[in-house]
Amino acid sequence: MPQIGWLEILSIIIIAILVLGPKEFPIALKKIGSYIGKIKNTFSNFQKELSSATKEIDLNEDIISSKKKINKDIEK
Q1: What angle do helix axes 6-20 and 25-75 make, rounded to 10 degrees?
Q2: Do 16 and 28 form a contact (C-beta atoms < 8 A)?
Q3: For residue 18, how many C-alpha atoms fall within 13 Å in the half-sphere facing its CB?
Q4: pTM of the predicted model, to two decimals?
Q5: What residues in the chain have per-residue pLDDT under 70?
Q6: Sign, Cα dihedral of 63, 69, 72, 76
Q7: Which of 14, 34, 52, 70 is 20 to 30 Å from 8 by CA-CA measure?
Q8: DSSP letters of 51-67?
Q9: Cα–Cα distance between 43 and 51 in angstroms, integer?
Q10: How many Å apart are CA 63 and CA 69, to the nearest integer?
Q11: What is the pLDDT of residues 18-36, one digit of tens each?
């Protein structure tokens, strides 16, 4: 995976300032920041839902295995 160094980041910032202008650049940064925040929030919610679903599956498997053990003990 390629890595981005400080020189590349600085060149991207300079090009963005030249293209957008010094007045529009902070506004664009705010918009980009809000989009990144929304994406992070979406991924966080997805992870929470996924972990809760796997916990439910694990609990159901534990309940089933416990019932099987109880039934085996009762049969003895």
Answers
A1: 130
A2: yes
A3: 6
A4: 0.57
A5: 1, 76
A6: negative
A7: 34
A8: HHHHHHHHHHHHHHHHH
A9: 12
A10: 10
A11: 999 989 999 999 999 999 9
